[in-house]
Amino acid sequence: MRIHYKKASINTSEHVYEPSEDSFLLADAALSNIKGSEHILELGCGSGIISAVINANTEARVTGIDINPHAVKCTKENGIEAIRGDLLTCIKGRFDLIIFNPPYLPTQVWERQKGWMNAALDGGSDGRQVIFRFLKDAQRCLAESGKILLLISSLSGVDEIKSKLNDLGYSVGEERNAKYMYEQLIVLLASRELDT
After folding, report:
1. Which domain holds residue 57?
2. Any idea what the CATH number is for the domain that residue 22 is in?
3. Is 170 exposed, middle or buried (0-12, 13-18, 19+ CB in 10 A)?
4. Closest alpha carbon to 134 in 103, 163, 166, 156
5. Mean pLDDT for back-to-back runs of 10 residues, the chain (196 residues)
6. How many distinct structural domains can be found in the chain?
7. What DSSP character marks residue 112?
8. Cα–Cα distance between 128 and 94 in angstroms, integer?
9. What is the SS3 assignment for 94?
10. What secondary structure letter does DSSP report for 122?
11. CB-count exposure of residue 39 (10 Å: 0-12, 13-18, 19+)
12. pLDDT score for 9
């Protein structure tokens, strides 16, 4: 299937998360936070829709990363640089902005899916498992004044995620939010608090 959004056009793939409301909400938040030629990492790039929107509308340099080999292939076929990796484990550089639409749904063992789609949806029993793994390593990959755009759900424990970010030294604000069906989707903007 071909998807068009904000001057970008991509093809999707069978074993890759299909762009949805959360993808478009995060893409809009990204566009409002990119000012020039920043170096950007999109974690969990899936089909590459958010990176494609960034490429079509800004001068930023964007790289995608995903654990799903089908997602990496799809993103590359959509004209975006992408690498395969588990969160930030294969990243050595620093980025001005890290964008992440993580698996945020609370998922019990019996709800897990077979195959690669589980990696896009399974947020662990509280919906925060992958988010907290990412946050533990994120500062290492951020430039001095780097920021994170993180999409979360009201089902994942918004206060717990904000608290974790504060504990790690970030200032946190809500950049965007929208209600979809049974949940509120929220894009958090986290900035590093530098010692003065």
Report:
1. 2-192
2. 3.40.50.150
3. buried
4. 103
5. 87 83 93 92 93 95 93 92 92 94 73 64 71 92 94 91 94 91 90 64
6. 1
7. P
8. 24
9. coil
10. B
11. middle
12. 86
